[in-house]
Amino acid sequence: MIPVRIFAGRDVAVQGLGVSGLAAARALQAGGAHAVVWDDKESAREEAATQGFTVSDLQGADWSKFAALVLAPGIPLTHPEPHWSVTRAKETGVEVIGDMELFFRERARAGAPGRVVVITGTNGKSTTTALTAHLLAAAGKRVALGGNIGKAVLDLEPFAPDLIYVIELSSFQIELAPGLSPDAAALLNITPDHLDRHFTLANYTNIKSSIFARLGLGGTAVIGIDDAPSRAIADSLTGPFAVKRIAVGAPVETGVFATDGVLHEMGAGVELAHVDLAGIGSLRGAHNWQNAAAAYALARSQGLTPTAIAQGLKSFAGLSHRMEQVARRGKVLFVNDSKATNADAAGKALASFTDIYWIIGGRPKEGGLGGLEPFFPKIARTYLIGEAAEAFARQLGDAVDHVQCGTLARAVEQAAADASRSDAKEPVVLLSPACASYDQFANFAKRGDAFREMVMGLDGAEGVRPEQGQAA
Question: Which of 45, 51, 52, 280 has its CA 20 to 30 A from that of 3?
Answer without folding.
Answer: 45
